[in-house]
Amino acid sequence: VAQVRGGMPPDGVCIVVGSCADGFNAEANCFGDVIFADSVMQPAGEAACPTQYFWEAFPASSSPTERTTYLFTYMDLAPERPSVLDIMEDYWKMLPSYQGVDLDDLELRRVLFGLFVSYKDSPLPVAFDRVIQVGDA
User: Fold this and answer.
1) Which residues of 114-129 are buried (b: 16+ CB within 10 A; e: fewer)?
2) Looking at the domain assignment, is residue 19 inside a domain?
């Protein structure tokens, strides 16, 4: 992709943080959320940038009391935007309210973070005759 874009920097990013943990109520752990927003924009990071957070959550298949939760947001690449660490810290502050659990009652299985860059000029055309685009990713 970098080769086709000629080294152009991305226009934006989706930052995702989350965890899989045990300790959720099994009776309540029977549904999932996709792109759920439970708050208005709030200040994040050192510059207190207005940030809209979204949640995704679903039961883990390993146990009726294990659940995976993600917090994500979209932003441009301005230097004053919150860092991945800022967003992870907000995740831990907001998770108890979102899931109705106390962090001390959870046993972490794994913690994750990642980011996905985005471009205004997208999708890219096929740049090489030996490449076939398949799927929607």
Assistant:
1) eeeeeeeeeeeeeeee
2) yes
CB distance 119 to 5 below 8 Å: yes
* 29 found inside a domain: yes
pTM of the predicted structure, to 2 decimals: 0.84
6 in a structural domain: no
Of the candidate ranges 33-42, 108-117, 118-127, the one whose mean pLDDT is the lowest: 118-127
**CB pairs under 8 A, 24+ apart, for 127-135?**
127/3, 127/4
Closest by alpha carbon to 68, among 95, 88, 86?
95
Residue 137 lies in a domain: no
In whole angstroms, how far apart are CA 112 and each of 50, 56, 92, 97?
23, 13, 12, 20
By C-alpha distance, which of 90, 94, 88 is closest to 112? 88
Around 70, how many Cα atoms within 13 Å sit in the side-chain half-sphere? Answer: 17
Residue span of the structural domain in which 110 resides = 12-118
Tokens of 43: 């200040």
pLDDT tens digits along 45-102: 888 889 999 999 999 999 999 999 999 999 999 999 999 999 999 999 999 999 999 9
Provide the domain count of the chain.
1
